[in-house]
Specification:
- Two copies of one chain form a homodimer.
- By secondary structure, chain A is mainly α.
- Chain A has one domain.
- Helix content of chain A is about 70%, strand content about 0%.
- In chain A, helix 3 crosses helix 4.
- The longest helix of chain A has about 30 residues.
- In chain A, about 20% of the residues are buried.
- The interface between A and B is medium-sized, with 19 and 19 residues.
Chain lengths: ~110, ~110
């Protein structure tokens, strides 16, 4: 299942980069809204430390998740699909085999 | 300079507790306002991680600073005075020697 850089055509790289950036922007935008709304409701110190814990967890998760190595992209896209940050149609242009793998992994 | 619990009269303990809680409440209230205002201005991910770094630092600082051991209180009060979270008059009721130490440390 290992997919390295040479397995990606130039067109596929473009499709992948666009889809990756789009999912990232969506997730970050949603997170910013969530943090703003969370913050506006902070009334006591426990709420503030809860926000801190929340940000720690999300930062760690996002840093690990958006991994643009070609060997990881299939799994990354499957995860993004599963979590709703990306739609399968946005990966159109990847070869059929990759799309099949992404879709199958996303259903797991 | 070590001051242990037996060096604090009941009245002094009450004064100390009230002053301590008041300073804590002030600092936390100010911090909550700061975090809310910071959050409302978050526009991109770097701002969010900056908020996270800020919260990490403040949490660590506050956890360490508000140390209600009688052996630490003179230093704690001096720091709170220095940072403006407490006024010397709010420590009235402590014995003259303690007040002198607090005031002297706060000027350092």
């Amino acid at each position: 299942m290992q997919v390295t850089e040479i397995d990606w055509s130039e067109t596929e790289k473009e499709v992948a980069k666009t889809a990756f950036d789009r999912a990232y922007a969506r997730e970050i935008d949603a997170l910013i809204l969530e943090v703003r709304s969370f913050s506006s409701a902070i009334a006591q110190i426990e709420d503030m430390w809860r926000l801190h814990d929340f940000l720690s967890a999300r930062r760690h998760e996002i840093d690990g998740k958006y991994d643009y190595r070609y060997s990881a992209l299939i799994f990354v896209f499957a995860g993004l699909l599963k979590d709703g940050w990306l739609h399968l149609e946005e990966l159109e242009g990847l070869d059929a085999d990759k799309l099949k793998k992404v879709a199958a992994l996303a259903r797991m």
